[in-house]
Write a structure and sequence with these properties.
It is a single chain. The chain is of the alpha/beta class. It has 18 helices and 16 strands. The strands form 4 sheets. The chain has a 6-stranded parallel beta sheet with strand order 2-3-4-5-7-9, with helices on both faces. A 6-stranded mixed beta sheet has the order 11-16-15-14-12-13, with helices on both faces. Helix 1 packs across helix 12 and helix 14 crosses helix 18. The chain is globular and about 75 Å long. The chain starts with 9 loop residues before the first helix and ends with a helix.
């Protein structure tokens, strides 16, 4: 175990405390353990750090051997955005599926089980749920990560999700404040703008966040978006008007304010990660998330030194940095206390109803989220192996391209001999040739956003009217095919539920 370095001054320790960095590898590198010993209080985990529950449990134990109150954070939304099951696909449907069912008890149960699995592996801060109101169907980065386009629906499911996570000791981090739903730009790539008036923001974007704050969410993540009605000059993450004036003072939030990834181009391209981090803390943020892309020791040291220098030059008030560090430590203490209570419950065999290992709540939710629309002709379930044609758009950064999606693997389990091909243009000649006499299942994702995909579907259904269409993104395009199945997300369990419907074996 590394002994805390007594020579590290308070200012430097506070600067380390407010960082939430990532790293490469499935065990903690020496540099990370050393910095934890010097005051680093949080670590962020990504898909590259996880191969199994057992490995993840060993990793978090390794981190806590250095410091038992270290915050271990993860970006585990379930659905399309999963880190726990990055190589397999999630066991839980995402927000859009849950919102389409609109059963808050189901949402709470899904979040509780997801939280239980995180807690069992030693994770205690989840950068979820997304409380964005997806009012723009062209949004390239939110989409199925939102509960939907209705503010009140999003609010009630956000509250249920927060309750589910925090009920099992996982701190929820409601995001992306003050709302990333009405954008057509991905903030990983550039700075999105929302140019609506204050009345619209209060009636739409802010409704779920007000509800989450009232429900006691332990953390809120800021968005790298420019809302001209609130601050025409700086994105929300760097805006005192938004983080301090709106979130702290008007909404009354007293928990931890976490930034979205500081290496995202919406901030980094204009300000750079060092100045961006200083401005974020000065604006009212308490923790700097970095590590989705930049995940080495040099990044940690650059940000630490930038914060220290800003205090010493007077650009960043020392009391503001101290307050931010204190809020990190307060959340760490809350999670540590819950871990201790959780250990007592396990030793006493007290398992909360509905959270037992192996529960199928994710599959139950995915089945309930299916919307099946039949064509003009009667549909006969497939009794022989079909050909699955996956129309594959470019994945956004948040989802990534590591996680498998679709229904081919699940159909192969039900109908052995199922074959599949991937397509990325509007021509269907090669597809029809590959399918031969087999029935075709066309799998799409956000067909309404991709003209080539719509053209391909139209041509395919015209040539083969018995084609089954499975939409695994937003269900915005018109239904087509002999059977149209909307899964409301691309999680592995959504694919399984769709495969059951295709084969006629649904539970």
């Amino acid at each position: 175990m590394t002994t805390l370095v007594h020579g590290t001054d308070t200012l430097t320790r506070d600067a380390l405390t407010v960082l939430q960095p990532g790293f490469v590898g499935t065990t903690a590198p020496d540099w990370l353990l050393r910095r934890i010993g010097e005051g680093l209080s949080s670590v962020g985990l990504f898909g590259r750090n996880i191969v199994s529950p057992e490995q993840l449990t060993a990793l978090t134990a390794q981190l806590r051997a250095e410091r038992d109150d270290v915050l271990v954070a993860i970006d585990e939304e379930g659905g399309d955005v999963t880190r726990l099951e990055v190589k397999q696909g999630s066991s839980f449907p995402g927000n859009y599926a849950l919102g389409s069912v609109d059963d808050v008890e189901l949402t709470r149960a899904v979040a509780r089980e997801l939280g239980r699995r995180l807690a069992a592996c030693g994770v205690d801060l989840n950068w979820a749920p997304s409380a964005d109101v997806n009012s723009n169907a062209e949004n390239p980065v939110i989409g199925v990560r939102s509960f939907g386009p209705d503010p009140d629906l999003v609010a009630r499911h956000t509250v249920a999700y927060v309750d589910g996570l925090q009920g099992v000791g996982i701190a929820a981090c409601t995001k992306h404040f003050p709302g990333h739903g009405d954008t057509n730009v991905d903030s990983h790539d550039a700075l999105p703008r929302i140019d609506v008036d204050l009345a619209t923001l209060h009636a739409r974007e802010l409704v779920p966040f007000r509800a989450a704050v009232a429900a006691g969410t332990k953390a809120v993540m800021s968005a790298h978006i420019l809302l001209s009605a609130l601050d025409p000059h700086r994105p929300a993450t760097l805006s005192p008007q938004i983080l301090t004036g709106l979130l702290r003072q008007e909404l009354g939030f007293e928990g931890l304010i976490v930034t979205d990834g500081m290496e995202m181009q919406a901030v980094a391209a204009t300000y750079g990660i060092e100045r961006g981090s200083v401005l974020a803390i000065a604006a009212g943020a308490d923790a700097i998330c970095v590590g989705g892309g930049l995940c080495d020791e040099d990044t940690v040291l650059q940000l630490r030194d930038a914060l220290v220098t800003a205090v010493r030059t007077g650009e960043l008030p020392e009391e503001r940095l101290a307050d931010a560090a204190a809020r990190v430590r307060a959340l760490a203490a809350w999670t540590q206390a819950h871990r201790a209570r959780g250990a007592e419950s396990v030793s006493g065999a007290a398992v909360q109803e509905g959270t037992a290992p192996g529960t199928d709540i994710g599959l139950v939710a995915a089945r309930r989220a299916l919307k099946v629309t039949r064509g003009k002709q009667p549909y006969t379930p497939m009794g022989s192996a079909p050909y699955v044609a996956s129309f594959t758009p470019v994945a956004n950064f948040a989802v990534g391209d590591e996680t498998p999606w679709g229904i081919a693997a699940e159909l192969e389990r039900l109908l052995p001999g199922t074959e599949t091909g991937s397509y990325a243009d509007s021509s269907v000649d090669a597809l029809l040739a590959a399918a031969g006499e087999r029935r075709i299942v066309a799998v799409v994702r956000d067909a309404h956003r991709h003209a080539w995909m719509t053209e391909a579907l139209d041509a395919l259904v015209a040539a083969r009217p018995d084609t089954v269409v499975v939409e695994m993104g937003l269900n915005e395009a018109e239904s087509r095919g002999a059977l149209h199945i909307a899964t409301h997300g691309a999680a592995r369990v959504c694919g399984r539920a769709a495969a059951e419907a295709v084969a006629g074996t649904g539970a």
